[in-house]
Amino acid sequence: MTKAAITTSTRLIAILTLSAWMMLSFIPTIAHAQMMTFSRQDLMDYTPQNPFDRLPDGRPKVPDSLMERARGLSAEEIWAGLEDKKFRNQYADGFHVLYPGKTMVGRAFTVQFMPERADVDDVAEAKAKAHGLPPLTNQMAIDMLQPGDVLVVDLFGKKVDGTIVGDNLFYYVMKATHGGGLVVDGSIRDLDGISEIDMPAYFRSVDPTPIGNVMLTGINIPIRIGGVTVMPGDLVVGDREGVYFIPPQAVKDVLDRADETHVHDEWTKKKFDEGKYKSSEIYGSPTDPKLKQEYQEYLKKRLQEIRSKRDSH
Amino acid sequence: MTKAAITTSTRLIAILTLSAWMMLSFIPTIAHAQMMTFSRQDLMDYTPQNPFDRLPDGRPKVPDSLMERARGLSAEEIWAGLEDKKFRNQYADGFHVLYPGKTMVGRAFTVQFMPERADVDDVAEAKAKAHGLPPLTNQMAIDMLQPGDVLVVDLFGKKVDGTIVGDNLFYYVMKATHGGGLVVDGSIRDLDGISEIDMPAYFRSVDPTPIGNVMLTGINIPIRIGGVTVMPGDLVVGDREGVYFIPPQAVKDVLDRADETHVHDEWTKKKFDEGKYKSSEIYGSPTDPKLKQEYQEYLKKRLQEIRSKRDSH
Amino acid sequence: MTKAAITTSTRLIAILTLSAWMMLSFIPTIAHAQMMTFSRQDLMDYTPQNPFDRLPDGRPKVPDSLMERARGLSAEEIWAGLEDKKFRNQYADGFHVLYPGKTMVGRAFTVQFMPERADVDDVAEAKAKAHGLPPLTNQMAIDMLQPGDVLVVDLFGKKVDGTIVGDNLFYYVMKATHGGGLVVDGSIRDLDGISEIDMPAYFRSVDPTPIGNVMLTGINIPIRIGGVTVMPGDLVVGDREGVYFIPPQAVKDVLDRADETHVHDEWTKKKFDEGKYKSSEIYGSPTDPKLKQEYQEYLKKRLQEIRSKRDSH
Amino acid sequence: MTKAAITTSTRLIAILTLSAWMMLSFIPTIAHAQMMTFSRQDLMDYTPQNPFDRLPDGRPKVPDSLMERARGLSAEEIWAGLEDKKFRNQYADGFHVLYPGKTMVGRAFTVQFMPERADVDDVAEAKAKAHGLPPLTNQMAIDMLQPGDVLVVDLFGKKVDGTIVGDNLFYYVMKATHGGGLVVDGSIRDLDGISEIDMPAYFRSVDPTPIGNVMLTGINIPIRIGGVTVMPGDLVVGDREGVYFIPPQAVKDVLDRADETHVHDEWTKKKFDEGKYKSSEIYGSPTDPKLKQEYQEYLKKRLQEIRSKRDSH
Amino acid sequence: MTKAAITTSTRLIAILTLSAWMMLSFIPTIAHAQMMTFSRQDLMDYTPQNPFDRLPDGRPKVPDSLMERARGLSAEEIWAGLEDKKFRNQYADGFHVLYPGKTMVGRAFTVQFMPERADVDDVAEAKAKAHGLPPLTNQMAIDMLQPGDVLVVDLFGKKVDGTIVGDNLFYYVMKATHGGGLVVDGSIRDLDGISEIDMPAYFRSVDPTPIGNVMLTGINIPIRIGGVTVMPGDLVVGDREGVYFIPPQAVKDVLDRADETHVHDEWTKKKFDEGKYKSSEIYGSPTDPKLKQEYQEYLKKRLQEIRSKRDSH
Amino acid sequence: MTKAAITTSTRLIAILTLSAWMMLSFIPTIAHAQMMTFSRQDLMDYTPQNPFDRLPDGRPKVPDSLMERARGLSAEEIWAGLEDKKFRNQYADGFHVLYPGKTMVGRAFTVQFMPERADVDDVAEAKAKAHGLPPLTNQMAIDMLQPGDVLVVDLFGKKVDGTIVGDNLFYYVMKATHGGGLVVDGSIRDLDGISEIDMPAYFRSVDPTPIGNVMLTGINIPIRIGGVTVMPGDLVVGDREGVYFIPPQAVKDVLDRADETHVHDEWTKKKFDEGKYKSSEIYGSPTDPKLKQEYQEYLKKRLQEIRSKRDSH
């Protein structure tokens, strides 16, 4: 497909198609050019429990419908759901949160930088060139983003020279991911400009310097953000407290459990509104058998309503 | 009074009555069950200058009318009033403030936790059981809250496992205290949910873990928050900077002095608006005798207005 | 001109005139009374490249028209402009920002405090008295502020007793500078009151104590704020990230360059909106010759529009 | 016994006797005078598993012989021993360690301070006076120390005005405890002088100010040091990393287990010295059955040697 | 070669031979078992400028003779030498230094851990098992160490559960590397025991917990320590300030330059001893032509002495 | 005096004479070349209470005999002495202390740096050149040091590029000041080399970079170190805790008072050794009248001994 042909399509399809095209053309080679390699096969090997389709680059593709449901998740629900499955490290906080009232949901697209070291970087750049790839920069990674992605970047907490994007590239990321989001263990610049763009973002600091003195060492490889090992394709959920990285195989259970918690909280507050009970008579679960039964019936009814409403969409 | 009877009353009265009932039934025993004891008599011994009535649990009861006036206090006024009386340690800051623009006012209901230690906790729990008390948890304390209380909790700055409440119990505290407030030298969870509930809160951090690895060691005992010794019944006032704990015997003077400061600031800004004076000619007090007289007259007039307006309510 | 005469003028003119009068009467003597001296001649010697007029106290006077243009500057533009001229240290951050969405622009009026030391302070105060000057306090400096000034204060990061102003003096500063602004490497008090006053402010912390245990050691001398040497008369620009101190001789170039960057960002986002390009095809500069030409033409046209619109005002 | 009589005894006995006498005379009253009370009965109630005698003040008295054995303990051994018994919070670090190469061992004598608050302190001091007690100061507590004690003080991390002792009182503590030791979550002063006195000490900081702006609120009550709940009579063991607070009932098991670990480490290093094995063939435990047997025999033999040597003393 | 045969050799040779054997047997497979792979070929590709032999695992082998010379290097010399070659990021500090007076020199053997994540770790462990490898633990990596190695470990600053070794394994590392050394961006345990073992070590903190809640993700892959990208085979030099990671190709030049600096400092101090000169007349370089000549002659003579003395060894 | 002539004198006299010569030749001009000026007259004006001679540069010259006595001072004595005279800010801590067991004593020679700013620095350098002065560098200041000086440097806490000296210049400072000392609110480099040179030093950090990106702005002007205003000529005393800056007029009283404190501590410990007293019976002062008298006599006798011994030297 020529570029000319693309311009005649609608904007959205253009982005989707172009991105897929770029991605596909990169995939066979990118793993050879970056220092830390993690091939499509590696990615599939290390995510064997993925119950969903995969993106062309091998990442698990949590379905859009589940991503939509995840927008209603609360911290308590995710934490409890992850703990059930013995995932105790999948939460990172301590970020500046651009839009505290707006939940971020998307598929992790991971990028790793390491401190610049000319002898090593020269080899990587030569490899990239030999494979017909563009220079290994933040933009090279950004150009591979897909709709629904959240860009997750390990810049090892760097502030000065650790700015993954300014307002122009932030704008591009918003367009390319359809407002997915950004998590960077590093900084951003042009906060004034970025504050006018509608995409969630989590960053450690802000600085006016452009990115520098670092080298891109991996795209869609396992990376570390705070105390979390993030895998490409993880479902990323950010609230006003921090960011959760949910392994794809846990998504469905977390969401189902969350429905129940929603109803539980609804009922709990309703009972508190009645003003007749001590908190311990109602919460965590009712002590009185009659209340217990009342709750069970309420739960059953509300879950049915929620699910039938969901199915009707 | 049976529980059935309670349900026929209005919601508000129900809470008041029920809480008082619970409190009264606990008071004789609670001091024997918790590790750090401070009996009703202790509390009265250590607050001998209290000029007001007392709550059933022995805490001084700063009157509702003074609490209402305290909502208009500014930091400068409280600080100056406390310093006058040689109280130099009654201020704590460094909190996250849930609602920066909303003054928090209430009577301190104090709770202390210490790090879990099974041998000690077992004894305390056995004592509680022997006295017919519920387990010594955060909910046991929360169930004793009264309207007008601010829940003040020493969780020694704990973040992970140091979450005094999530959104459900925060909601209960709001109902039980009639929107009084929360100060915790520790953390909360479910900030998203809590952000939708209308009650001031001051906390050190946010975490998704539930409270754990701690033991409740005291209710309504003297506790430490930052550099402050907080006594049960202190008037708690929180602004967007931090939290003041005002001994009951100082409340009246602080408030009266604040009236004067209000008028002083009003006049000062009015004179600055005139654009004729250097700041030092007007503030802290006018240097010119004529201005001094003008100020004195203004002060007298305005104080009369304020007081007569207050009396007419 | 008598004070009586002043009261018949309009408020604005009064302030301007009175301030100028106060300033002029202080200038010959103030340098002799403060410990760290930097005379009008020193100031002129150390800012020889100033292309603009000077204020009566010797500070370069960046024209109001350029200050107006500077309100549209973004961090990226200033940083790039300063770096071009090898100014790499003229940025300070880590402040609390009172109004994150409001750009601060003004001329630096600098004040330096040092820790109190009675033997030294006594000498300084005696000198001040001997020269007919008021006591060396924060108010003495504040009374010298001019419209368009930003008050820039070195209080060496002091929190307790390091509060340069409360709400009354903050109000005065707002009036005297016509809403210029405040930068203090120290604290303020009465944040509740200050939050109702419409002037940008950058401060390290908030505390209820009044200023104390310090001595004023210099007015309009070179001072240090974070990692910046600030000269009296620097153009101060604050955004939601931090504060830039632009040497007067660099102002014009920074602004002209910014026009171009504005257009560049406008065009970049426009192209991103089209959805046909990878980010690297457009940003930093277009790779395709045709796009490059398109951009050059767009730039030329838009710059003309901007400038003609500016000239017509 | 008259004071004159005491002077004719040997110095050591004098101290012992005098201290006991002082202690005994205080015990019935001290609990009534301090704000946070924890009576002899409370102490006994909360340490029911204590297998040893008790000191006159009710604290468990870990025998001198076990204290002697504890001087050979290593961090690894204590940690493992405590974890076996589910004590996971009994370790505190982050101190300055006066003598890194010298193990501290003793029985916890606890003291709690809280921020000064005149209204409360006045009541406590009046109570002390009414009971014929000296003023509630650091020296009052220090005068109650017994041989074998470690003074453990909660001064809530205070540096300025938080100095529990200078060199004179540190010298006294050394004499009174027979070189037991000091742990303070606060500061000391006169480090130069203290560095010449032979007693282990763990402190947060050093400051030249004397103690002040605090009030003594409890002696031999449960206190918090870092993340540990310390009970009076705990066995305190300090190494160059930090301080362990071992509940008396766990001491014997920890020590017995340590003997085995000592031998294990001895054998492990001996095998490593042979240079024939990978670390994983030997450590944690040997994988080869023959090596396993060799180790078991070595362990048996060495334990017998250690124990018979111990018994012969 | 049988194990029995090994025991008849001398200890040193045994270790060398055994280690080499172990290493060789692992090399083909280890890269397939760890999550982050960096094969022998990758390592050779990314260190093309290595002027020396290579170890069996592909790492550049800086010769023992140069390592010996490196023991005399000072921080200033290394820094200047690296800067000459545009290596500005090869220094890390902020460690606890076990032996401040003892220079550490060795070849980097790198290990990377990431936060535990069961789904990923299970795959890695299954792969290890399938390749006949031992479990992926710290000991597996330690068993691969060679004489002259410094163990360099990325444990992302973890304190609790981040202890790479206790005294037993530290002892083994000392034996296996012939006292090479340890650098860990994480913690160690049993500092008391470790303090008796003669090997340099650099660590972030000390903790009594064993290593846990992490997974080994790479051996001899590029890792990050502070702001440094460390390559396997880098020459590691530690002084009392911090640690330098010198790319092999830069070692020779750094050392030659250091000889000159040694002589320069020798001469500089000699001249200062004469007491006739201002520092600026002598240092950085003499200003007076006669002194300059004197220095040049001294330099020439001393360099000849140093080199002939070196050659004679 | 020619340089040749100097070489025939003894080393010590040479330094003294040369330094004085250099100093004298600089004094009239240096104040004009540095940005922050503080002339010889300013210095005399601001230290009017100085009871001693002055150095040629105008600094008070605390006599050598008093400096000698000051080597025996302890923190407690200085603090108490300064507080008596209302000097509450003259202490700074938080330094790395090179020789913890060695007291530093000397006269403050102050140096101030500020962040580099080319436009300002160019003017200063041009002024220096016009006055025939060397470039404004750290070495220019170091070349002015006198025997008995302590070099006190404000480098605003800078670590990277904030190294006032490496081992060569540290060696020169040691020679020039006769082992006086160094206090820098900044860093040093070459700690290994410096650790072999016998001079006390207090610094914030260590870094391998040379000094840079700063400009020298003042020599022997009032500077700020931590929370202290340091005046040129202050008596600097450093112990293992921190550094005191004693105004010359307070030196004699502090020392006399210290004699008494020495005796007091001597007596206190002697009484504690007797084992007959509670600490509160002896310390702060004896409560028993007979003990009080005993102490007074002891004090009198010992003071006489100390003084006569001192006079006999």
Please describe what this structure looks like.
Six copies of one chain form a homohexamer. Chain A has 313 residues and is an alpha/beta fold. Helices cover 45% and strands 18% of the residues of chain A. Chain A has helices at residues 3-8, 11-33, 40-46, 64-70, 75-84, 118-130, 138-142, 167-177, 191-194, 248-274, 279-282, 289-311; strands spanning 91-93, 96-97, 104-115, 149-154, 182-188, 201-206, 214-219, 223-225, 228-230, 235-238, 242-246. Residues 1-25 of chain A have low confidence and may be disordered. The interface between A and E is large, with 38 and 39 residues.
- Please state the overall shape of chain A, judged from the principal axes of the Cα atoms: elongated
Estimate percent helicity of chain A.
40-55%
Poorly predicted segments of chain A: 1-25
The total of helices of chain A stands at: 12
Mean of pLDDT of chain A: 89
Radius of gyration of chain A equals: 22 Å
Number of beta-strand segments of chain A: 11
Beta-strand residue percentage of chain A: 15-25%
Structural class, from secondary structure content of chain A? alpha/beta
Q: How many strands, which pairing sense, and closed or not: the largest β-sheet of chain A?
A: 9 strands, mixed
SSE order and pairing:
6 copies of one chain form a homohexamer.
Chain A lengths: L2 H6 L2 H23 L6 H7 L17 H7 L4 H10 L6 E3 L2 E2 L6 E12 L2 H13 L7 H5 L6 E6 L12 H11 L4 E7 L2 H4 L6 E6 L7 E6 L3 E3 L2 E3 L4 E4 L3 E5 L1 H27 L4 H4 L6 H23 L2
Parallel strand pairs in A: 3-4, 4-5, 5-6
Antiparallel strand pairs in A: 1-11, 2-6, 3-7, 3-10, 8-9, 10-11
